[in-house]
Amino acid sequence: xxxxxxxxxxxxxxxxGDRRALARAITIVEDGxxxxxxxxxxxxxxxxxxxxxxxxxxxxxxxxxxxxxxxxAFRADGDPVAVLAVDPSSPFSGGAVLGDRVRxxxxxxxxxxxxxxxxxxGHLGGLSSAAPKAxxxxxxxxxxxxxxxxxxxxxxxxxxxxxxxxxVVVVTAGWGDGVQxxxxxxxxxxxxxxxxxxxxxxxxxxxxxxxxMLAMGPERPWTPPVLTTTATSGxxxxxxxxxxxxxxAHLRATGxxxxxxxxxxxxxxxxxxxxxxxxxxxxxxxxSPITADVVDGRLDPWTAAVRIAGAGxx
Amino acid sequence: xxxxxxxxxxxxxxxxGDRRALARAITIVEDGxxxxxxxxxxxxxxxxxxxxxxxxxxxxxxxxxxxxxxxxAFRADGDPVAVLAVDPSSPFSGGAVLGDRVRxxxxxxxxxxxxxxxxxxGHLGGLSSAAPKAxxxxxxxxxxxxxxxxxxxxxxxxxxxxxxxxxVVVVTAGWGDGVQxxxxxxxxxxxxxxxxxxxxxxxxxxxxxxxxMLAMGPERPWTPPVLTTTATSGxxxxxxxxxxxxxxAHLRATGxxxxxxxxxxxxxxxxxxxxxxxxxxxxxxxxSPITADVVDGRLDPWTAAVRIAGAGxx
Lengths: 314, 314
Known about the structure:
Two copies of one chain form a homodimer. Chain A is of the alpha/beta class.
């Protein structure tokens, strides 16, 4: 692999299973460098068979440890596994909050495990498109399972995880009542619920609480199981892996597999359009005759924005 | 005040100094309810005399305590003070992370202090316009000083604080080196730097470090002072209040006061336009003939977005 590889050659190397090409393609996509769009365009869409597994939950719930154990469980059948860890960006550390954490120590010598961290937000302040683009690249590289782990501090991270085929929501034993879960909107996005730290007091109540809240919701073709794990010992993780695979089988059997892909692509288009408009806004503000009224304090910015957007100046 | 007050009447009551009308107007603006835009339009622009003081810094740096003490210092001259606390939204608590914290206990019986918390992000995922709109309302209500405190976890909060007339950046003694501050971009946004917990080891080094980094930067008409506080005891906060007022006087003397207002209104227009476009995107996706290609997997979402936005369908 030479340094002068063009986007099509790099895409070809990714498709051929070259791991160095994969790492480089994701770096180019993450940095938004020249050629990024061409690489994604060349690799889109990834194979339909790739299963995207989102893992989200409150900070401290043990998501990293569960991800680590889950990868081990998935590796048992010999298939490679990719992990994309999406962290909120922090202005006080100059990057992703946990970007430099040492991840997945247990798999560092396993060439069948590919791990990558990236920040959730882009330069312009919007949700970064790097994660969805990186997922296209990882799918093209042939991973049958891709775990998207988010730290779940903000709405961004929950949205990213919830865009997966299967969303695993991790809560801690004694985490609080189902009302809190309902308010947080996690009952809607979860396909599998995990009560981690099951050895702590309150685990049974948390499980019962989640189950009763889920039973109160609308009837769904898939009833999300509520499992317990003790990630530090690995207990319950094999069941979690089976539940995740069972959900994939359910999606395929019902046609929801393809439907989720279609919904996801539509949502990605909407997100990409917002990014496009965001990048055009400075020019629109510059060009609009209304801008002077706002800058001089004669017209408020929000009324002005409605007028400018309504005039189709976008 | 009756429940049937229309936006203009409510705006009039805010201008007349009615505190219940003020609280109600901000609630309407925060919820984006009917009449919100009319209230903001009626109150825009607030009086030029209002001084917006942004306070930001890493979590745990003691911003809440400093804000509390700073309000006491400002109250000494008898003028009312408003505090707007902007928190990141958490999907796991169903609202602002610290929205229900008990704030500003020391001022709860002081009618000259108005405190309000709100979330940094809006329903549609963008930076909420509630905070800048609430600031217009607070200015119209006649507060000569408005402290905007953010928890500083994310870029959003730093942006909100940095849009103030005077931005106070709070760091902790021993917080790390100047390189970290430079990476975080806080050297550029800070008008006053505060090293809090000055009684801890490393305070002098942190002060020296910040000063040398600031000295290495471009020459500016205002040299940001680096102060020390021990907020828990109140030590240094009177000096901080004087430094904040001195910065306001500097801005007025140099014409930068009006220039910051013009820049801010331009930035608010850009933000409002992004929100407008975001609200229009679902319709654009629905209407575009390219959408089917994306949904069916024939064209990647990002290439499609460039084409749609370029065609002026926004």
